[in-house]
Amino acid sequence: MKFNRQSKSSNQYIPKSSQELPIIDIEGNKKNILEIFNFEEMLDDYLVDLEIRNYSRNTIKTYNSILTTFFDYLKEEKKLYDDNDFLRSFKKYIQFLKRDQEVVQNYIYLVTVVIKKFLEFNKIYFLNDVESPKRTKSLPKSLNKKEVEDLINSVQWDENCDSKSRIKIKLRDKLILTILYSSGLRISELTNLKINDIDFEERIMRIRGKGDKDRVVLFDERSKEMINEYLAIRESNSEYLILNKFNNPISARHIQTMIKKYGKKANINKTITPHILRHSFATHLLKNGVDIRVIQQLLGHSSLSTTQIYTSVDMDTIKTIYDKAKM
């Protein structure tokens, strides 16, 4: 992470905060920044703004957690009177996260971006000369086709022995795994999927993804049959497709826990998440010769470079392509 001080000779404009610091009280003492800025109230206003701008519930929850934790840290700082003090405290906080909390580099990046966004939203430019640290670009893992089949087939029930409610839950779980893989949905897109967004005749789903960008994804005949079967047994008029046992929209956390459970049951020695199923979807399409721009459209990526990272192919596939291409 770089902390660049702007030279006086530069013509680049650096915006100033709305308050000139430090502020001296009537007794001649410097006022603590936490007395000058009501960060808790600012945070409430900021979270409302994020919701108005259609940020996802998970994103808002993450931002809230990051900012609240940082503000709690600032409360323990004894010297916090001006922008230099704030910058020093921020650097100490990043050091604390790295050394004491041992967080990953990508989380440091996220913390930096979130705190800077919050401050700039409130026209506070204490961290204006802080550059966001680089993110590590590790290749995402994926499941092979057999592992996907084993995962989905691990959801079993007995029509003769299991109760109707148990069959309904099992069918729902199998449908979740099937759709996440066969359509490449994000977990938030699945939890927010409504029945009216599904065209059964054309076998397409209308999805509102990140940044309120709409796209169309496909689903196969097996998914179509399972959706119809699930709708027939679930006994609810909810507009949302996937429900919990109380007939409310299912949570992302419940799906994540459920997938891990079936991954263990299928004896798959990998950490399985909804994102890994999405990546597996993209990787298998690429291996089968689907153009990467088509995959980009199905995944809802605005940048092709993002799709290229998601669809990293394994070395065996690269060797096969290489051997076929040799003169």
Describe this entry's structure for a reader.
By secondary structure, this protein is mainly α. It has 2 domains: 33-121, DNA polymerase, domain 1, CATH 1.10.150; 145-314, Intergrase catalytic core (hpI Integrase, Chain A, Orthogonal Bundle), CATH 1.10.443. Helices cover 53% and strands 4% of the residues. The chain has helices at residues 33-36, 39-52, 57-74, 83-99, 105-121, 145-153, 164-183, 187-191, 221-234, 252-265, 274-287, 292-299, 304-310, 315-325; strands at 198-199, 204-208, 214-218. A 3-stranded antiparallel sheet has the order 1-2-3. Helix 2 packs antiparallel against helix 3 and helix 7 packs antiparallel against helix 9 (221-234). The radius of gyration is 25 Å and the shape is elongated. It starts with 32 loop residues before the first helix and ends with a helix. Residues 3-15 have low confidence and may be disordered.
Summarize the structure.
This protein is mostly helical.
What structural category do the secondary elements indicate?
A: mainly alpha
Name the helicity range.
40-55%
Number of strands: 3
What is the CATH superfamily of the largest domain? Intergrase catalytic core
Output the strand order for the largest sheet.
1-2-3
Overall tally of domains:
2
Helical stretch count? 14
How would you describe the shape? elongated
Q: What is the annotated CATH architecture of the largest domain?
A: Orthogonal Bundle
Poorly predicted spans: 3-15
- The end-to-end span amounts to 47 Å
Helix/strand order: HHHHHHHHEEEHHHHHH
Mind telling me the CATH class of the largest domain? Mainly Alpha
